[in-house]
């Protein structure tokens, strides 16, 4: 079955970073109990642990700008997304480069959620 994986990915990425920048706690709804986050090599499994990790990051304000959001369908009907971009934290003047990979899958009700999420700052 063909589906607009790039359109879904673009909508998801826009929603994810808008929510991250305005209300990180609200990101919990995008994950499930079997979801996993790896944030700068630290892993969190499950909705509560992921929400705790994201809400306790060592900054108050953040603004993401994504440059690319490349997507591909998976063999099981999901979507893999690779995002590159920049972010500003708190009052810093110099943006940090980042890459983030997501695997989206659908729950039994057909709602897309983040099954895998890997975030890495890019230095150099």
Automatic annotation (TrEMBL):
It is found in: Cytoplasm; Nucleus. Residues 8-121 form the NTF2 domain. InterPro entries: NTF2, NTF2-like_dom_sf, NTF2_dom, Nuclear_transport_factor_2_euk. Pfam families: NTF2. It comes from the Eukaryota. Keywords: Cytoplasm, Nucleus, Protein transport, Transport. GO terms for cellular component: cytoplasm; nuclear envelope. GO terms for biological process: mRNA transport; protein import into nucleus. Facilitates protein transport into the nucleus. Could be part of a multicomponent system of cytosolic factors that assemble at the pore complex during nuclear import. Has a role in nuclear-cytoplasmic transport of proteins and mRNAs. This is Nuclear transport factor 2. It comes from Podospora anserina (strain S / ATCC MYA-4624 / DSM 980 / FGSC 10383) (Pleurage anserina).
């Amino acid at each position: 079955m063909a589906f607009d994986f790039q359109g879904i990915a673009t909508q998801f990425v826009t929603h994810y970073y808008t929510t991250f920048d305005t209300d990180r706690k609200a990101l919990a709804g995008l994950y499930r109990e079997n979801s996993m986050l790896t944030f700068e090599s630290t892993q969190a499994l499950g909705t509560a642990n992921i929400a705790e990790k994201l809400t306790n990051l060592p900054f108050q304000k953040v603004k993401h700008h994504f440059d690319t959001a490349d997507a591909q369908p998976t063999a099981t009907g999901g979507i893999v997304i690779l995002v590159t971009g920049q972010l500003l934290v708190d009052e810093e003047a110099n943006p940090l480069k980042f890459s983030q990979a997501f695997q989206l899958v659908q729950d039994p009700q057909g709602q897309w959620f983040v099954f895998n999420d890997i975030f890495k700052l890019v230095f150099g």
